[in-house]
Amino acid sequence: MKIVVPVKRTVDPNVKVRISQDGHSMDTRSLKMGMNPFCEIAVEEAIRLKEAGKASAVIVVTVGAAACEDILRHGLGMGADRAILIETELSLQPLAIAKLLKVVVDKEQPDLIISGKQSIDEDNNQTGQMLAALLGWPQGTFASKVELEPNRAMITREVDDGLERLALTLPAVVTTDLRLNQPRYLKLPNIMKAKKMPIERLLASESGIDLRSRLIVQQLAEPTKRSGCMKVQSVAELVNALHNVARVIG
Amino acid sequence: MSILIIAEHDNHTLSPSVLPTVTAARQLGQDISLLVAGYHCEAVAEASARIEGVSRVLVADAAHYQDGLAEELTPLVIQQVNETVRFVLAPSSTFGKNLMPRVAALLDVAQISDIVRIQSADTFVRPLYAGNVLATVQSHDPIKVMTIRTTAFEPAKLVTTAAEQIPVSATPMIGRSILLDRDRSKSDRPELTTARVVVSGGRGLGSAENFRLLEVLADKLGAAIGASRAAVDAGFISNDHQVGQTGKVVAPELYIAIGISGAIQHLAGMKDSKVIVAINKDPDAPIFEMADYGLVADLFQALPELTKALDTLNS
């Protein structure tokens, strides 16, 4: 059982992002970058399945510039066996990324793909589902539990009105929700070992896939700021304000 | 030029998320088909036909549509996208988010997530970075496949004259994914994403037992109960209550955040509420930056006081 884990490099989820002067892109130059938190959960899950003897190999894959090597090494440091960089300087959208990932999947023939449900920068929540569609595989999105049987994956999904459990015939795509696991911290010897491991490279431009953007960003703007907080000193004052000023209660 | 909306439902009841999706569709055009795919879903089709602006209801009734599985619904949706369909819409719920990228990929078009504003037939506004940025995006695809953030559009009205229902033939069963069971939260409270008032609790509540203190307040206000990720992770309440970037997005008239520090991921899910109240003992908690009214207090004192004050107000 081989598992492919697509991962993405994003800004650290705790830093404040700013719009560039041109108004068309985000100024991430000086910001701390790392593996998208949902992707890290995906890598962790794959490695746990391997440690439990359910999987034989874990391959991390990303699509992006040479700088994305750092998150692949992070994945290797967590315990992945191999890393593949599909290199491009272009900023690609989910459909093109899913098509590029399919190239790797067609070659590697994994039984399972585990990806993050969304990236915390563009919040699209699309790539895993698109990859499943292109492959014609079943999908278990927003998973909070993954159990593997010889020919199927049992997935617990977090949905709007609670939880649901699916049985997916393998091969399948799973996308991770936050409560699936708590990713491990990297140990120094593993970081050192990951530094020496090879990164396999493919060029996106040589795939023959149409990489052009389908959506053109015309403008980025900050949402309207709220008017500011009025500090009240007591519950009585709060209730009075909500009743008589904001008129939302009573 | 026509619009296809995929209805979300449980075979008995139409989801309220469909109504704002219809409103969004009406900003794009007049010819609106609502696809109801389910099993023994006559009541849903009936309700769908009475939404103002819906031109016709397409009904696909088959056992393999019963569970709303994306694998089964995708071929049906693709089959319904004829040469006149220019837009395919669904609510940006877990149902829509699960289904629509699959549809878009097979149509070989982009999917546009979580639209909060329709500027023109090809230009839309959607949030990025947990709602800290609003992007205006233009689509060059011949078919626009999009999910609609339901709190950003008013719900469509219901009318007495029903649109026509047209049965459509089912696509063959795929059968590679099977629903085993559902653990649906049962509650008599208003639905979280459409409630007029939401009372939300965070890590500050300290335990599942204390979290129940919110229920007394929610009862007084007829409110839905929300939670921060920290509270859900800690097991104080189930996942379907989570408000935030990766949970539900709410925009009630009144949002009361109790014992919630206000991580940006939480703010993403509630910042469009009309009036925001924060009660927290830490005066530097980021939630106060987003609040209209802030009370720095121990919530275990403030909560019973607030409940009592509401009693007095109501009497």
CATH architecture of the largest domain in chain B: 3-Layer(aba) Sandwich
Helix content range of the residues of chain A, please?
A: 25-40%
Reading side by side through the largest sheet of chain A, how are the strands ordered? 11-10-9-12-8-1-6-7-13
Largest sheet of chain A, described in full?
9 strands, mixed
| Percent in strands of chain B | 25-35%
What is the class of chain A in the CATH system? Alpha Beta
Write out the CATH superfamily name of chain A: HUPs
Question: Explain this structure to me?
Answer:
The complex is a heterodimer of chains A (250) and B (315). Helices cover 28% and strands 32% of the residues of chain A. Chain A has 250 residues and is an alpha/beta fold. Chain A has a single domain (2-245), classed as HUPs (Rossmann fold), CATH 3.40.50.620. Chain A has a nine-stranded mixed β-sheet with strand order 11-10-9-12-8-1-6-7-13, with helices on both faces. The longest helix of chain A is centred in the first third of the chain and has 15 residues, at 37-51. The model of chain A has no long low-confidence stretch (mean pLDDT 96). Chain B is an alpha/beta fold and 315 residues long. Chain B folds into two domains: 2-167, Rossmann fold; 197-314, 3-Layer(aba) Sandwich (Rossmann fold), CATH 3.40.50. Chain B has helices at residues 18-26, 42-48, 70-80, 94-107, 208-211, 213-221, 229-233, 264-267, 287-290, 299-314; strands at residues 2-6, 32-38, 56-61, 85-91, 111-115, 117-120, 123-128, 133-139, 144-148, 164-167, 177-184, 197-201, 224-227, 254-258, 275-280, 293-296. Chain B has a seven-stranded parallel β-sheet with strand order 5-9-4-1-2-3-10, with helices on both faces. A five-stranded parallel β-sheet of chain B has the order 13-12-14-15-16. In chain B, strands 6-7-8 form a three-stranded antiparallel β-sheet, with no helix packed on it. The mean pLDDT of chain B is 96. Strand 15 (230-232) of chain A pairs parallel with strand 16 (293-296) of chain B.
